[in-house]
Amino acid sequence: MSKNNLPKRIAILISGRGSNMQAILQEIDHGILRGLAQPVLVFSNNPAAPGLEIAQAKEIPTQSLSSKGFKRSTFDKKVIDILEPYQPDLIVLAGYMRILSPLFIQHYPKKIINIHPADTKEHQGLGGYEWAYENQLKETKITVHYVDEGLDTGSIIQQEIVDLQGVESLEDVEKRGLAVEHKLYSKALKAIITTK
Ligand code: GRF
After folding, report:
1. Which residue of 57, 76, 117, 183 has the fewest CB atoms within a 10 Å radius of its CB?
2. Taking a C-beta distance cutoff of 8 angstroms, is the pair 64, 43 a contact?
3. Pairing mode of beta strands 112-116, 139-146
4. Residue ranges in 67-169 assigned as alpha helix (H)
5. pLDDT of 10-51, one tens digit each?
6. Which helix (H) or strand (E) holds 146?
7. How many CB atoms lie under 10 A from the CB of residue 164?
8. Sign of CA dihedral 97, 89, 151, 119
9. Could you tell me the pLDDT band of residue 3, with boundaries at 50, 70 and 90?
């Protein structure tokens, strides 16, 4: 249980397929996040994100608003307004392909968490698996971190190594990486919730 014994209210932000979101929802249903977290909203800046349907099938509230054409801070202000009624304790970014404005980050201090498919000390921004593959790394590190105003510079919560020996394609790298992501994200969320 978290300290006040109430499950933490989490809002999950996605832009696409939502496999990390799905893994977290499974851990909330019958895994390590049971009783610790409650999904109050899945939001997407891409109304066509396949992950939205996965959440809807589980009867989790969803909202979406296309970010196309919006200035970063204008859009984020709208997102804050969407999130506000759900009173999230934590904002969980799961493949949310939009850099957050300082406005958004300052609105949720130490409450925004992200998963990055590389060691954030070694590689920032997009293409973490491509980077590992092209550099023929023997291993890479998945990172769960707090989000601050820099690009993948927030303090690290947990990391886990992905063994890349013998991989033959970028798809192999991604497959091994995602298997680690899907476990690590919930483990890190559990650590945050139980120590907060
Ligand atoms: C993951 O590799 C995550 O690390 C990165 O974006 C991808 C999202 O995948 N931030 P999914 O939407 O969770 O399947």
Report:
1. 57
2. yes
3. antiparallel
4. 72-83, 102-107, 128-134
5. 999 999 999 999 999 999 999 999 999 999 999 999 999 999
6. strand 139-146
7. 18
8. negative
9. low
Residues 132-187: tens digit of each pLDDT: 999 999 999 999 999 999 999 999 999 999 999 999 999 999 999 999 999 999 99
Residue 135 carries which side chain, given as an amino acid letter?
N
Of 118, 126, 190, 105, the C-alpha closest to 159 is: 118
* Bridge partners of residue 38, in order along the sequence: 9
Ligand 1 atom index nearest CA of 115: 4
- Residue 116's alpha-carbon distances to 33, 120, 148, in angstroms, are 20, 7, 14
Residue from 136, 142, 186 nearest 160 by CA: 142
Residue 45, number of CB atoms within 10 A of its CB:
21
Res. 5 pLDDT band, cuts 50 70 90: confident
Annotated active-site residue 123? The verdict is no
Ligand 1 centroid–CA 23 distance in Å is 11
Pocket lining: 115 vs ligand 1, CB cutoff 6 Å: yes
114 CA from centroid of ligand 1 (Å): 10
Residue type, 102: P
